[in-house]
Structures are given as C-alpha cells and as structure tokens.
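User: Good morning. I'm curious how protoporphyrin IX containing FE would be positioned relative to this chain. Could you predict the structure with it bound?
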Amino acid sequence: FWLRGESPPELVAFNPATKVWGVYGHAESLQVLNTPSVFSSEIQRKIAVDSRINVANLLQMDGMPHARLRKMVSRVFTPKSVVGLEPRIAELTGELLDRVCGRDKFDLVQELAYPLPLIVIAELLGVPSADRPLFQQWVDMMFRDHQEVSVAEGEQTPQEILGGAAEVLRYIGEHVAERRVRPREDLLTKLVETEVDGEHLTDAEVVNFGFVLLLAGYVTTTMLLGNAVLCLDAFPQWQAKARADRSMLPSVIEESLRMMPPFTALSRVTTEDVELGGKHIPADEVVMVWLAAANHDERAFADPYTFNPARDPNHHLSFGRGIHFCLGAPLARAEGRIALNLLLDRFPNLRTDPADVPTFRDIAIMTGIDRLPLLIGPS
Ligand code: HEM
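Assistant: Good morning! Here's the predicted structure, ligand included:
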C-alpha cells in the first residue's frame, strides 16, 4: 500500500530500471487476474527459473493443461475435506500452545505460526510422524532464515534452498510410488487414485502438487497467523469485540488478509499487446500485480487504511482471483480461525511486548511477521 503513495495514484506504471510493469489499482488487478489468456502465469517463458525447483506446477500453468490438473486435484482437495481436518487442527494448536503455558512470554511465529501449517500439510500428505523432524529440516532449508530469492533479478539461488527442495521432492516421490502399491488414508493416495474422464494423474503430477502445497500454503499461512494477531494487538477495540463474539473471527481474518496480504504481488507475462489502466503494454512483458496496493485502492474500499473487520463486502485480492484462485483458502481460513480462537481462550492478557518489537520477513513479494514476541502474563 506504500506503493500507492502518489497523488493521484498511478494505477499501472512501467519501471524502466527493472523493466517490469506494476499494477496497483483494484479494477486493473482484476482485469489481469481474470484474463489469463493475455496475462499468462507461464512466467518461466520470460524469467529463467532454476530447473531443479521449477517443477511444472499449477501456479505456472495456463489454459487446458491448468484446467485439467486443477479439475483433478480439486476433486480431492475439497472444502469439505478441510472441514474433516478441523478437529485435528484444533488438537495440534492446543498441543503447541500447551508448550508455552506457564511462561510469561513466547514468540508466536516460533511456537505456533511456523510449526502449525507445516504439520497440517505434512499430515495431509501422509508424512509419518517419525519422519517429521527430517521433513521439517528440509523444509526449513527452503524457507527459514533466507532473505529474498530474487529469480527475477537473476541472482544465484542459494544451494541450501535447492538442496531442501530436492530432498522434499525425492521424499514425496518415494511416498507416491509406495501409495500405488500400499494405499493409505491420505491425500497422496487419493490423488494417486483419482480419476476424471477416465484419466489419472501421473506420479510427477502428484509429486508436483504435493510440493506446490508447501510452496503456496506454508509460509503464507504462517504470515496470516502472525499478521492477524498483530492486527488484533494494534486495534484493541476489535480484539475486545472478537473476544466477546467469536463469530467475528472470520471477518478479522479477512480484514487482516486485506491489510497485510501474505503474497504481496503476483507476476504474469503478456501474450499480446494490451491496454490496461490507460497504458499500452506490449506483448512479452512482465507484469507484477501488487495485491497489497489493490487491497488499499480507495475506489474499491472506503477508508482503506482503517482496520475494519465489519467492512462488507471485503473483496480483497489476497487469495488471487480467476482460474488460479487459491485452492487452499478454506484450509488457511480454518487454521486462522481455530488458532485465533484458542489463543483468545488461553490468554486473556495476550499483548505485544513494547520492549521487544516484532520483526518482519524481508521479502518484497511477501508481507509477514518473522518474529512476534507476545506477553501472556498478567498485565
Ligand atoms: C494459489 C494465496 C494458503 C494452495 C494462491 C494464489 C494466491 C494464494 C494469491 C494465486 C496465485 C496466482 O494467481 O498466481 C494464499 C494465501 C494463503 C494461502 C494468502 C494463506 C493465508 C494456501 C494453503 C494451500 C494453498 C494453506 C494448501 C495447502 C494453493 C494452491 C494454489 C494457490 C495449490 C494454486 C492454484 C492454481 O494455480 O490453480 N494462493 N494461499 N494456499 N494456493 Fe494459496
């Protein structure tokens, strides 16, 4: 939203230094996300991505191949299947919070927001609990303690990230092969078995989908949890209302997603010349849709810089739009609601520590807390 500081704000602008078009308006962002034939997600056509991590995945596919794969995985990864996970998410959240009981202070990210989404994805995939520390270690190599991996600027991708990704891909691959022989009650088995119009997913497609769940669904959910707690701390009147009426929590989550979208920006490549927000964009150009800016467009949101969970409608773009709309949105929303609910239940005096300020992750295309020390003792 700090990107939209000019008056009148630029809705679409070319940056000659990076040679990237920035889209900042809500309507203009919708036009991009809803026209995938012109604004393609096949970003690899324009930007070289290391082939070891650039596994063909939903996020970077278009047209019929995307529609086919999305239809097949959507059969298995349904909103209804997420409802079935809710008791387990509550149990896991309770166990994680048990560990901090008796302390005066804890880091929300370290103790809850970072471990919870990973355990949920690992259990979804059917990673046995004995393997979880190893799995966690590889995933940490991919996500923890790294600054931005700027493929757009052609920087060297750190070996550690690639090493972690390669191990995760290999591990999921072994499990997919095993599920063909010995089916279990898990998502991988269901993906292996799913049949749409007489077609099955290949092993590689199942592996890539499992990997995309981690790429798209892990750190984003960590950030959602941290950002939502930060918003409730910054706006105590809303914390008091949510404490008294827990049915408000879904709106609190939507509003914190609007204010602080975990994915700050999405990239696309133009397939033809196009007019957008009064600008002419040639074919074959990189376009960044700044969700954080669109979510603060005063043409779409009254008083956009005010945290107001009561806003209705709240048509933020934090889960994207169109054919790539986040497949994990029901899961992320459920985790957010369950975690906030338990935090409010357990800690009547939950608040940030004025002597120990939170830190943010330093990644341009993501907005989120990296460390959120919270006081839980008597105030
Ligand atoms: C796609 C955001 C959680 C799985 C997306 C997209 C966004 C997004 C913006 C669209 C990307 C694009 O258009 O290029 C988020 C946020 C989350 C979250 C903010 C948490 C607050 C999850 C979770 C999962 C997940 C928990 C699953 C475990 C996916 C998948 C896609 C996707 C598979 C690709 C859909 C497609 O390309 O058809 N997400 N996501 N996400 N997300 Fe999420």
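The radius of gyration is 21 Å. The first strand starts at residue 12 and ends at 15.
Let me know if you'd like a different ligand tried.
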